[in-house]
Amino acid sequence: MVLTGALLIGLLVHSLLHGSVQRPAPQVPPAVRLDINRATHAQLRQLPGVGWHVADALESYRSNHGPFATIDDLRRVAGMSAATLDRLRPWLTVSSESAATSSGPSEPPAPPFAITAPSSAGATASLGVIDLNTASAAELQGLPGIGPTLSQRIIEARTQRPFASVDDLRRVRGIGPKTLARLRPYAVVGPIQETKR
To answer: Is 32-99 assigned to CATH 3.40.30.10?
Structure first.
């Protein structure tokens, strides 16, 4: 009996370590929510479970039918299942300005991200999206997986050559594909400032 229990535990541990049993994904609330009426194709593709076809369908629906009034309107998009919508809901927002049509003078467009209020998720939730070329060490340390050492390496790398895209973080020793994927929703690269010499 003890041998059978030990064998079952051993098989379970082996399965977990080698991927034959799927581990539950960590439920981390997003620090930023994407406005579905302003999001670009590339931004839509960064949402969990959104591939080329769904992003194309979202853009097509938006251009043919106008802005979404609520997140639930996404169910009208071809390929958007209830399960996919439930998975996307924490990542999305619809701003009142983007859903309403304005007849007055146009103002500069707002960014497609809305910063959520600080929560128990930690510093990341209070930071929202940060510019990698201008963020302080403390701001960088609020990003998931970035501590004092990596924040210093990021600052050194951007001092040598400013980041042209978020993917340039791969130049930084210690940032691999998995860390980059965790950082992508929270990081942007603004216009590169020319320095006078």
So the answer is: no
pLDDT at 150: 93
For residue 5 the two structure tokens come to: 């229990």
Task: For residue 66, give both structure tokens.
Answer: 């106008």
| DSSP letters for the chain | -HHHHHHHHHHHHHHHHHTSSPPPPP----SEEEETTT--HHHHHTSTT--HHHHHHHHHHHHHH---SSGGGGGGSTT--HHHHHHHGGGEE--HHHHSPP-SPPPPPPPSEEEPPP-TT-HHHHH-SEETTT--HHHHHTSTT--HHHHHHHHHHHHHS--SSGGGGGGSTT--HHHHHHHGGGEE--PPPPPP-
pLDDT(25) > 50: no
27-58: pLDDT as tens digits:
444 556 788 888 887 777 777 777 778 888 88
Rounded distance between C-alpha atoms, residue 79 and residue 59, angstroms: 13
Region of residue 79 (phi > 0: left; psi between -120 and 50: alpha; otherwise: beta) = left
To the question of domain 122-188 being in CATH 3.30.450.40, the answer is no
**CA pair distance 184, 137, nearest whole angstrom:** 17
Which amino acid does the sequence have at 145?
A: G
For the question of whether the overall pTM of this predicted structure is more than 0.70, the answer is: no
